[in-house]
Amino acid sequence: MPVPRWLNGKTPQEKGRRFEKKLAKRLGGRTQPASGALPFYREDIVAGQYLIQAKRTDKQQYTLKVSDLNTLVVNAVKVGKLPLMILWMGGRQWAIAPYGVVAEAVRR
What we know:
The chain is of the alpha+beta class and 108 residues long. Helix content is 35%, strand content 23%. It is globular, with a radius of gyration of 15 Å. 18% of the residues are buried.
């Protein structure tokens, strides 16, 4: 079933894909093919030493689960990268990382 013109480009999935592409470009990275659907391309973006999970919502809240963060850490360790989650919510971007990653970055 085709998408109506007035809705074209405005679905949450399309907004999320555009957010991933823009974020990857700003960070000097690249988006992962199939964005986590394939077993060897997990998460959304690879930028430098980071494997990034990007989330976007137009709502004023987002339910963050520890299982999502643990999965991100496992996938990042498997490919030798540092885990990072970037959340766009409320018109702002937020970065979420394990304490050890942040502490090391601050010491530099």
